[in-house]
């Protein structure tokens, strides 16, 4: 065997032995980190546990985080190790639902190793910390209810991210008829509730039960106020409308509401059911003077009570029938009402009409004459809840009297609403405020001013008697999510000359907007003109809602193969697109990437980024390397090593044979 081959073989075995003998032992191993207690809101403090395996004992240890958006109090311990060491750091997170790349710095002043105390160490490890979202749901009740009346409202429960949970609903100052529990997506949950408010300050108590990122149960309660307005007064009608003097009579009393209500109608000597806002009860009334009063009580099935008193005039028995009807049967309080009274009596007659409980613009009493049916028109402004019209008709020396009671209902003089109800947070918008009078007006002006969430200067708009729409430019800050309040004050003058002011608040819902960030990389970094290269684009949605209809365009190079459509990108999610490009010429190039996307309201946004690169000129065809004859020097060395190894094996075998051979 050649001497050179033996030397190479010995050197190879020596290097292998040294590598095995002098391999260093593991001094420490960073095992990572996990949350012990997560932050519950932006700016809250959570507990992050970091774990190490330490081969030695370290003295005067400190551990801290650096290079990321998390702020942690430095952890200090008198000693650590050997073995598994765990440190719990108090970490404050400025935002939830994000990922942070942090450097974990481990320092120790001294290290006890192999029975001796030496200087300490400083290690820096990389840790990617995901700050999870924490359930923080919001709730609202959409719809208006009448006091004491059973009605429906839409309960909306939402959050900045989606998760499953249990929603429990109860009522305070109200009676809830719907089921009290729901299970579903708390990020967007809606349910219609059947509820009866028993107080103007009635509200719903919404409790959301879910689990945080550590699997712990979380219960969050929200007090949701209900919009409650006064219940309309019942309308009472009696038949007959008057009583003969000196006797008793059976009277049919009709009770009606403008809204569907259920319950029971009570009179002194009887009762009857109230269904759908209608009820009829019979009672016996005796005449004991100029008027007979009948107390009527309505007990609703919700527990609310309405009490009214029906007054029937008492007249001597007339020798001829008299019928009086009035249209409309319900008047509007505070407004000018045109009332038509129809008087029907046989033969020619003369009559007189008077009004109680209202101001008459046509004067009172009103004298008239007729034959058969006669119509008398009045302009009335109610001054009380009940307006009474008394009619006296004389014919042939006899006088007949009749009385009609009208109910004056209270209602808002204006209807004010805003369109659209939902706007995107972070941007300028133009909303339309619509003002519609419900009563006759001669003057109307509305003043709009910000209450919360929206930014715009206070402005006053003068509208016509028929009302109109106002376009209001507003600015919604990016950090506003949820209800946005716009206040209004309306100054008006009724057709009767009475002036007043009506105020209220309009509510909009500010939705978060998507926000895409673009990361790019080019392979190869220096492409060649006329040859394809690749552009990798990563789109990350840092917003609170999904980005829809995402389209990515590239300019500055010819696109050979575009990527497939991306569709939608969820909040805190990302998608990748790879373009195959060709640069037509050499020199510096600027590649522009544009991502166009929409939000849930259909509003369009765009994100742009650019990449500067240098394109080489077309490379000449590579020269064919000269062929080398024979075997290379490296190949000879490998062959020599194999031959030497075979010879050594044969020599060992022969030597063993000689030793084993008997002498």
Automatic annotation (TrEMBL):
Transmembrane segments: 636-655
Keywords of this entry: Membrane, Transmembrane, Transmembrane helix
InterPro entries for the chain: Ig-like_fold (IPR013783)
Listed name of the protein: CARDB domain-containing protein
Source lineage: Archaea, Thermoproteota, Thermoprotei, Thermoproteales, Thermoproteaceae
